[in-house]
């Protein structure tokens, strides 16, 4: 039906012409404020009919919403359908508002409702189709993005999803291409279809996402596992810092297990001790050599480990260096505990992070920090096993390990210790210590009922020999074998020694001989008693050797045998077949053939790279003792074979190459991963052994005969060609102190040989000086031997030709010393002005005043031996002569005695005198302890009584005291008198008087002399008191005061420090002085047994000096005092001569350009402040400070050309530093105020450079006190270290300025050089690289050191007031 308003037009329309586009009528909306329900019904009917007609006329088949959605869109179609849709909605609203609407109209309204519903559904379907298509296209684009080549899962996942999307898209296309009216009429069906498409699409995407999530979960889990592995690896790496011995635990299987059925009673007793919490905490398995202690310990460890109760184990061995040193025991036990218990690992990692050097601390600190504290915190219950404690190197009268263990076992109620060891004196004494004896269960293995031991040995032999018979089916062995009578005989011959039985079994087991014949050989031997594995085992060893080489008459064969056997038994660390072959210069099959028949006494692995070990230590003792080994074919001449091994070691060392491990330049040792593995790969085990032990073999070599010349020749060649490479390897081995010991071993041998060795002696001494002078450097970095140590060596040393200038960053050194000089070594403790120092024959102890730490260094090598952390601050230190005890006086009025090997507290004394302690000392044999107080009183205690005696009090004030040779005698001095006291009787034995007041006194035990220093008017007067003769003699000192002094070790000389600088040595026999250069304040002097003098220098640290005549030098007055920088690469140096002089030096050649001296007459250059302020080549001006002859401090400027003063101004305080502005118009200076030890404020002053007029000044307080360095950005903007300042003219003034604070930041002194000095003043750095080491004293300690860095140069002023310049590669 056509719309009624188009009837006429439709009749005239051509038949074939398309219908005209209808013009949509305008439907006016109902007016606002006139609701439909208030309209008349008739009107509503008319409106409803009109709206219905409009809607029906527009809704023709030629205009469908689906057409507009999916066909080519047309504005007319959209417009007509929107109009119909709006008209239909209005019609329905009008009709619903009419309550009396006619029935036909209601039917039409119903049709309109269906029309609107279909339209809405059709529109929704169209939108949904469009959304589905867009989503499919978007997903397709995403899936088309590239995937990593390795992600096969993601590729498969995307392929599957694209297949599903393609299926949905194919189903969707037919629906979108249907005719509009069909789509319109089937809206409901299409909606269901589209919903299923959406569901399919959602399912496909969900499946894809689920698969991804599963992978993410898997990957996350794997990442978590990987992270955990990384954490565990990091923890293990951190644990490796403990330096554990990895083959020291029971898992290494160094010993056989007890044969089943043997040692049951012993093992049962030990297991009952383990399980019973009421048993004592420590179990000592005490047995003689050869009684099977280690076998029992191995078996017990396995049993406890199977039960889950073994915490850690350490099997000591004298054959291995790392298993015979006490310092490795506790770190190794801690490492094993950390691997066993996660909670313990967490604690120990925390300990290592807090103190990375904990494994190098004292034994007591190791035990507490690595074992006791972590175990206490985690409440772990376990057993710790230590086997063969007697095989560790320990020079204490009581075992050091047992001493520290006794102090802390009570702190570990859940931990038990199982220890085995022979009853040697130090082991017995250790277990008898008061703290350890009550908690130790001792089991005497050698006192077990002999019948039980014989039963076990018989069972062992029966099992072993039966197994041998079963394994030798090719031989005719009688059955039964062995016979009961044979077993009885063998058991009797063993005499309770399992070592005899086990050696016997290994002897019979030889695959090259018939077992029964070997058995009969032993049985037919005459009986012999056994004691400690000597007499009883000797015939067996003899039989083994004779049968192994029976029928051989060649002398050469036995010579080779002794060479090989000598290498095996004399090696300081076990060697493998490969290593022995390299050392002896033979092939490996030769070693195999030689040792083929000795498997009963040697443990010879199948692997040629594994170490050969002796089965029992009684075998090497047998071979080296002519009273036990009577056959000269097998007797090893110990010195001769040591000489052979020394020559073999030296030959290996001569093959060392430069940088053997191919390390990168400037690398620090700690940054090289797996150094040990790298050394094994690049250097090899044999050469590593040679590096460590060659000198020990030399020391034990013959001192007469041909070997002396051979060794001298070989050692000389080695030092000339490969000595530096040897030091490099020892640095990487972290055993640099062994270089010092090795050269001292060589010197010991020199003293015994009958041949003069001047050339080799000089070479060795040069190497010793080189190592000790650069010890601190080489210990940190092996490559810096070439980059720093060699270039900085003296010009006359043998090392200068070894410098590889093309590989070192240094191209020139100015100020390098000609010779080594008196300084042997510097122990870098920093400034010692607040340090207390004490020495013994073996160590040097230093404690910082009022601090809680004592550092103890080896007196020979300078290496750190011990770090003691105390609870109370320290005010005095002292030492026992043999080095076993260090004394500490504390601010709380107590004195503590510390064991220097274990680091444990030996005793604490509470003193009666409550005054401040001044000094402490222990008598020669350690019986008495004396304390001197600030009030001049002396208190003496008897050590054995633990301080419970009355002591001795003296009313007269005492200045100093020292113990004498007789144990009970104490020399005290005060005022002008010296008295000898008997501290037991409490009486004065002798008295001496002096003319002047006494300020110090020293004693020589060798000659029983006292040297008393008194202060005269202009000099120090030294009085020598010969106590044996009871006479005193007066020595007049040079016209200069002594500050500190000491006897030389021989007591023939007195060593003293001059208050003006340097050391003086006075010979009592020649009455002559000689002087040594040392430009530093000395706080301490002492002599060592090796003749060296220990000096505590205020700025340079602790120095070891040689008082050899070769190094004596007259005092040198011409020394650089201060230095300041100039522009254009020059510096100014102020020198102290007879009169002040200023010199301008050109840094490229260090030549003098200009000297100013005449115009400085009448002024003094003070020693306590910097004389130079600033200099400028632009202004041709230098500014310096002077002290007037009548007093007062002045700042003066001088022109560089005419050398005439330009201006002079009086100042209140000497500036610490000054700088000219870039244009040279202003001078900025910084002044410190307050005492030197507590700067309370500072000030910045700005001066007119031309007139010297003060332009501005600013006082600074607190944290804004600047450093002495100033840098300029412009004429009016400059920096100190922490702050930036601006300089402005004051309002209304032409010359007066004001200084304003701009910001707080940290700015270093600017420099165009790529080479700088780091903050520690120990290294020259280029970026983050440490390029060159700065030796101690090369930089003055004042204001972080005077130095200037040019483009490729560094000029430094040292503590010795000498200028040095380093030139670096561009």
UniProtKB/TrEMBL annotation:
Ranges annotated as biased composition (Pro residues): 16-27
Coiled coil: none
Source superkingdom: Eukaryota
Designated name of the protein: NACHT domain-containing protein
The organism of origin for this protein: Thelephora terrestris
Keyword Repeat: yes
Domain NACHT, residue spans: 281-423
Keyword field: Repeat
A UniProt-annotated Pfam family: NPHP3_N
Renumbered residue ranges of the record's region Disordered: 1-30
């Amino acid at each position: 039906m056509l719309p009624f308003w188009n009837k006429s037009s439709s009749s005239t329309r051509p038949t074939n012409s398309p219908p005209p586009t209808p013009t949509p009528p305008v439907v006016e909306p109902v007016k606002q404020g006139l609701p439909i329900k208030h309209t008349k019904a008739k009107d509503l009917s008319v409106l409803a009919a009109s709206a219905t007609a409009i809607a029906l006329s527009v809704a023709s088949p030629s205009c469908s919403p689906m057409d507009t959605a999916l066909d080519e869109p047309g504005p007319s179609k959209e417009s007509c359908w929107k109009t119909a849709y709006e008209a239909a909605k209005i019609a329905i609203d009008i009709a619903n508002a009419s309550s009396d609407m006619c029935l036909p109209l209601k039917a039409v309204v119903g049709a309109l409702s269906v029309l609107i519903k279909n339209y809405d559904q059709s529109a929704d379907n169209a939108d949904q189709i469009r959304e589905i298509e867009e989503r499919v296209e978007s997903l397709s684009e995403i899936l088309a993005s590239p995937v990593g080549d390795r992600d096969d899962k993601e590729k498969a996942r995307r392929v599957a999803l694209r297949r599903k999307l393609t299926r949905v898209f194919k189903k969707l296309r037919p629906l979108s291409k249907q005719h509009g009216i069909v789509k319109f009429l089937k809206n409901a069906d299409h909606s269901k279809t589209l919903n299923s498409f959406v569901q399919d699409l959602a399912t496909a995407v969900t499946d894809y996402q689920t698969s991804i999530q599963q992978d993410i979960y898997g990957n996350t889990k794997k990442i978590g596992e990987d992270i955990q592995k990384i954490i565990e690896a990091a923890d293990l790496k951190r644990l490796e810092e403990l330096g554990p011995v990895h083959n020291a635990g029971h898992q290494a299987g160094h010993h056989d297990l007890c044969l089943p059925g043997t040692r049951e009673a012993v093992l049962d007793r030990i297991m009952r001790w383990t399980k019973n919490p009421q048993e004592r905490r420590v179990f000592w398995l005490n047995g003689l050599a050869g009684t099977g202690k280690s076998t029992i310990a191995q078996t017990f460890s396995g049993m406890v480990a199977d039960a889950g109760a073994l915490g850690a184990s350490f099997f000591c061995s004298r054959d291995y260096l790392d298993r015979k040193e006490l310092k490795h025991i506790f770190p190794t036990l801690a490492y094993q505990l950390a691997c066993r218990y996660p909670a313990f690992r967490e604690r120990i990692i925390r300990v290592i992070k807090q103190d990375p050097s904990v494994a190098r601390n004292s034994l007591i600190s190791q035990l507490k920090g690595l074992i006791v504290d972590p175990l206490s915190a985690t409440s772990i219950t376990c057993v710790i096993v230590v086997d063969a404690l007697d095989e560790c190197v320990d020079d204490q009268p009581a075992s050091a390990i047992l001493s520290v263990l006794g102090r802390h076992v009570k702190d570990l109620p859940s931990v038990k210790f199982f220890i085995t060891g022979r009853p040697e004196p130090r082991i017995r004494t250790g277990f008898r210590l008061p703290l350890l004896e009550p908690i130790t269960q001792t089991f005497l293995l050698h006192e077990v009922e002999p019948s039980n031991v014989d039963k076990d040995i018989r069972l062992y032999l029966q099992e072993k020999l039966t197994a041998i018979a079963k394994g030798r089916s090719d031989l005719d062995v009688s059955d039964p074998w062995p016979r009961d009578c044979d077993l009885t005989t063998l058991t009797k011959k063993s005499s309770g020694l399992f070592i005899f039985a086990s050696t016997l079994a290994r002897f019979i087991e030889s695959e090259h001989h018939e077992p029964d014949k070997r058995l009969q050989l032993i049985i037919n031997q005459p009986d012999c008693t056994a004691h400690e594995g000597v007499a009883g085992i000797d015939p067996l060893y003899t039989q083994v050797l004779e049968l192994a080489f029976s029928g051989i008459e060649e002398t050469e064969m036995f010579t080779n045998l002794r060479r090989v056997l000598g290498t095996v038994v004399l090696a300081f660390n076990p060697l493998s077949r490969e290593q022995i072959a390299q050392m002896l210069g033979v092939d490996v099959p030769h070693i195999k053939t030689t040792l083929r028949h000795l498997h009963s006494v040697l443990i010879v692995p199948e692997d040629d790279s594994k170490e050969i070990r002796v089965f029992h230590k009684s075998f090497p003792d047998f071979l080296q003792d002519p009273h036990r080994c009577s056959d000269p074919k097998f007797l090893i001449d110990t010195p001769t074979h040591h000489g052979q091994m020394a020559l073999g070691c030296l030959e290996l060392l001569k093959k060392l190459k430069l940088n053997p491990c191919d390390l990168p330049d400037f690398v620090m040792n700690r940054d090289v991963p797996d150094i040990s593995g790298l050394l094994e790969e690049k250097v090899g085990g044999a050469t590593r052994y040679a590096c460590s032990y060659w000198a020990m073999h030399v020391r034990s070599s013959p001192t007469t005969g041909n070997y002396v010349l051979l060794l001298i020749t070989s050692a000389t060649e080695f030092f000339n060609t490969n000595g530096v490479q040897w030091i490099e390897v020892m640095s990487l081995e972290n055993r640099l102190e062994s270089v010092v010991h090795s050269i001292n071993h060589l010197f010991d041998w020199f003293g015994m040989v009958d041949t003069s060795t001047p050339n080799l002696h000089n070479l060795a001494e040069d190497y010793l000086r080189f190592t000790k002078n650069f010890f601190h450097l080489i210990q940190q970095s092996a490559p810096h031997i070439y980059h720093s140590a060699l270039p900085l060596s003296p010009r006359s040393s043998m090392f200068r030709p070894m410098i590889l200038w093309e590989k070192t960053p240094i191209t020139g050194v100015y100020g390098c010393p000609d010779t080594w000089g008196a300084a042997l070594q510097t122990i870098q403790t920093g400034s010692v002005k607040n340090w207390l120092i004490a020495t013994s024959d073996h160590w040097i102890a230093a404690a910082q005043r009022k601090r809680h730490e004592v550092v103890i260094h080896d007196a020979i090598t300078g290496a750190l031996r011990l770090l003691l952390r105390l609870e109370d601050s320290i005010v005095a230190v002292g030492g026992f002569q043999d080095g076993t005890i260090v004394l500490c006086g504390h601010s709380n009025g107590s004195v503590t005695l510390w064991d220097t090997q274990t680091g444990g507290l030996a005793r604490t004394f509470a003193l009666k005198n409550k005054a401040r302690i001044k000094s402490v000392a222990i008598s020669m044999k350690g019986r008495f302890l004396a304390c001197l107080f600030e009030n001049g009183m002396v208190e003496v205690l008897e050590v054995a009584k633990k301080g419970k005696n009355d002591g001795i009090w003296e009313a007269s004030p005492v200045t100093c005291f020292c113990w004498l040779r007789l144990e009970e005698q104490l020399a005290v001095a005060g005022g002008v008198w010296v008295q000898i006291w008997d501290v037991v009787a409490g009486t004065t034995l002798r008295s001496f008087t002096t003319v002047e007041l006494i300020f110090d006194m020293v004693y020589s035990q060798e000659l029983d002399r006292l040297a008393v220093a008194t202060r005269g008017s202009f000099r120090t007067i030294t009085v020598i008191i010969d106590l044996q003769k009871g006479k005193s003699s007066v020595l007049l000192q040079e016209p200069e005061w002594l500050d500190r002094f000491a006897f030389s070790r021989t007591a023939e000389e007195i060593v003293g420090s001059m208050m003006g600088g340097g050391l003086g040595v006075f010979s009592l026999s020649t009455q002559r002085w000689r002087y040594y250069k040392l430009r530093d304040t000395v706080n301490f002097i002492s002599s060592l047994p090796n003749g060296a003098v220990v000096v505590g220098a205020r700025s340079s640290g602790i120095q070891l000096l040689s008082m050899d005549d070769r190094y004596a030098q007259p005092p040198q007055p011409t020394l650089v005092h201060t230095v300041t920088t100039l522009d254009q690469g020059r510096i100014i140096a102020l020198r102290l001569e007879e009169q002040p002089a200023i010199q301008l030096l050109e840094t490229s050649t260090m030549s003098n350009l200009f000297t100013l001296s005449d115009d400085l007459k009448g002024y003094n250059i003070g020693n306590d402040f910097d004389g130079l302020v600033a200099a400028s080549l632009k202004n041709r001006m230098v500014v310096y400070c002077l002290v007037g002859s009548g007093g007062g401090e002045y700042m003066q400027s001088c022109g560089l050309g005419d050398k005439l003063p330009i201006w002079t101004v009086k100042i209140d305080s000497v500036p610490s530093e000054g700088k000219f502005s870039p244009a040279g118009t202003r001078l900025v200076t910084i002044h410190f105020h307050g005492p030197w030890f507590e700067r309370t404020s500072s000030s910045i002053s700005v001066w007119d450079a031309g007139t010297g007029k003060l332009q501005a000044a600013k006082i600074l307080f607190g944290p804004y006190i600047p450093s002495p360095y100033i840098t300029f950005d412009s004429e009016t903007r400059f920096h100190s270290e922490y702050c930036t300042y601006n300089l402005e003219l004051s309002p209304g003034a032409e010359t007066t300025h004001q200084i304003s604070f701009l910001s707080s930041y940290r700015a270093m002194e600017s420099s165009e050089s790529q080479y700088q000095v780091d903050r520690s003043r120990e290294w020259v750095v280029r970026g983050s690289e440490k390029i060159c080491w700065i030796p101690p004293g090369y930089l003055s300690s004042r204001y972080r050191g005077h130095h200037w860095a040019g483009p490729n140069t560094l000029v430094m002023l040292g503590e010795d007031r000498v200028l040095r310049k380093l030139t670096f590669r561009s």
